[in-house]
Automatic annotation (TrEMBL):
Keywords: NAD, Oxidoreductase. It comes from the Bacteria. PROSITE patterns: 3_HYDROXYISOBUT_DH (PS00895). Gene3D superfamilies: N-(1-d-carboxylethyl)-l-norvaline Dehydrogenase, domain 2 (1.10.1040.10), NAD(P)-binding Rossmann-like Domain (3.40.50.720). Belongs to the HIBADH-related family. It comes from Teichococcus aerophilus. Residues 13-172 form the 6-phosphogluconate dehydrogenase NADP-binding domain. InterPro entries: 3-OH-isobutyrate_DH-rel_CS (IPR002204), 6-PGluconate_DH-like_C_sf (IPR008927), 6PGD_dom2 (IPR013328), 6PGDH_NADP-bd (IPR006115), HIBADH-like_NADP-bd (IPR029154), HIBADH-related (IPR015815), NAD(P)-bd_dom_sf (IPR036291). The keyword Oxidoreductase applies. Residues 175-291 form the 3-hydroxyisobutyrate dehydrogenase-like NAD-binding domain. PANTHER family: 3-HYDROXYISOBUTYRATE DEHYDROGENASE-LIKE 1, MITOCHONDRIAL-RELATED (PTHR43060). This is NAD(P)-dependent oxidoreductase.
C-alpha cells in the first residue's frame, strides 16, 4: 500500500471511545485544530466536545466514513475487534489509505491480525499506539506513545500523535507497541509490589514511612512509583487515577506476552497474582496503589487511611 500524506489540521479525525483517557485525548485533537467526529457507547460523554463543535455519529461505521484518520481508545481486545469488524464497524466504511490509530492497551497478537485484515479488506493502515502517562498525561497532552505498524503510516499520522503525546517511539511492525506497553505495565506493577513490601518492612521495623520514602528517593531506588504511588500508599489515598481492575487486565496481557515469547518472568507472575488478589478482595475500583494496603494487611498492619 502507498503511504498516505501527512494528516495535518484541519483534517477530520474520527475518535471512538470517550472514557477518561479518550475524552481528554479527543479534546487535545480539537485544540490542535483537527475537526472531530465522535462515537462512543454513551453520547453524554461527548456533550462538551459537541458543544465545542465536534460532530456525532451513532456508529463507528458512520464516524469512519470519510476521515483520513480514525482513532480508537477502548477497554480491551474484544472491544477493539467489535468496533473494527463488528456490525456497523469501522471496516464497513473506512477509506482506502486511511490510518486507524488504536490507543487502547490490548493483546499484541490479535493487534497484528487486525492490522493485516484491515489492510487486506479495506486497504487501510492500523497503528497500535498504547499510551502511558495516565489521565493527567491525557489531559495535558504529554502522553508517551508506543507505536507499532507501517513506518510510512506512522510518519503520516505523526501530527495527530503529536496532539496527544510528547514522546513518540515507533518500535516495529503491528503489535510492537502493545508488546512495549506490556513491558511498561509489568515494570510498574512489579515495582509497585516491591515498594509496597518495602514500606511494610519499614513500618514493621518502626520507621516513619514518609521519612523512609524521602531517603529512598535520594538513592538508586528512586522511581516514579516510589515518588508517587508510595505517597498515595502512605497517605491512604485510594481514589482512582488508574483503577486496579485495569492494571489487572494489563498484567494478564503482560503475563500472556511473556508466555508467548518464552520469557522466564517470575516478577511478572507475582505482580499479576497480587493484582488478581487485590481485585478479588473487592478493591478493583480503587487505584492500583491500593496494593500497598493489601500488602500491609497481609503483613499484620492496618492499611493507612486519609487523615
Amino acid at each position: 500500500m502507498t503511504p498516505p500524506q501527512p494528516i495535518q489540521p484541519p483534517a477530520e479525525v474520527a475518535f471512538i471511545g470517550l472514557g477518561v483517557m479518550g475524552a481528554a485525548m479527543a479534546a487535545n485533537l480539537a485544540r490542535a485544530g483537527f475537526r472531530l467526529t465522535l462515537s462512543s457507547r454513551s453520547r453524554a460523554k461527548a456533550a462538551a466536545l459537541e458543544a465545542a463543535g465536534a460532530a456525532w455519529s451513532d456508529t463507528p461505521a458512520g464516524a469512519a466514513r470519510g476521515p483520513a484518520c480514525v482513532a480508537l481508545c477502548l477497554p480491551d481486545t474484544a472491544d477493539v475487534e467489535a468496533v473494527l469488524f463488528g456490525p456497523d464497524g469501522v471496516a464497513d466504511t473506512v477509506e482506502r489509505g486511511a490510518i486507524v490509530i488504536d490507543f487502547s492497551t490490548i493483546a499484541a497478537a490479535p493487534t497484528a491480525g487486525f492490522a493485516a485484515r484491515l489492510a487486506r479488506e479495506r486497504g487501510a493502515f492500523l497503528l497500535d499506539s498504547p499510551v502511558s502517562g495516565g489521565p493527567g498525561g491525557a489531559r495535558d497532552g504529554t502522553l508517551t506513545c508506543m507505536i507499532g505498524g507501517d513506518a510510512g503510516a506512522f510518519a503520516a499520522a505523526e501530527p495527530v500523535l503529536r496532539a496527544v503525546g510528547t514522546k513518540l517511539t515507533h518500535l516495529g511492525p503491528a503489535g510492537a507497541g502493545q508488546v512495549c506497553k506490556s513491558a511498561n505495565q509489568l515494570l510498574v506493577a512489579a515495582t509497585l509490589q516491591a515498594v509496597s513490601e518495602a514500606l511494610a518492612l519499614g513500618r514493621k521495623a518502626g520507621l516513619d514511612p514518609e521519612a523512609m520514602r524521602q531517603a529512598l528517593t535520594g538513592g538508586s531506588a528512586r522511581s516514579f512509583v516510589l515518588e508517587n504511588h508510595a505517597k498515595r500508599i502512605i497517605e491512604g489515598v485510594t481514589a482512582p487515577g488508574f483503577r486496579a481492575e485495569l492494571m489487572r487486565k494489563d498484567m494478564r496481557l503482560a503475563l500472556a506476552a511473556t508466555r508467548d515469547h518464552g520469557v522466564f518472568a517470575p516478577a511478572t507472575a507475582m505482580a499479576a497474582q497480587m493484582l488478581e488478589a487485590l481485585v478479588n478482595t473487592g478493591r478493583g475500583g480503587l487505584d492500583a496503589s491500593a496494593l500497598g494496603g493489601l500488602v500491609a494487611e497481609l503483613s499484620g498492619l492496618e492499611a493507612a487511611r486519609p487523615e
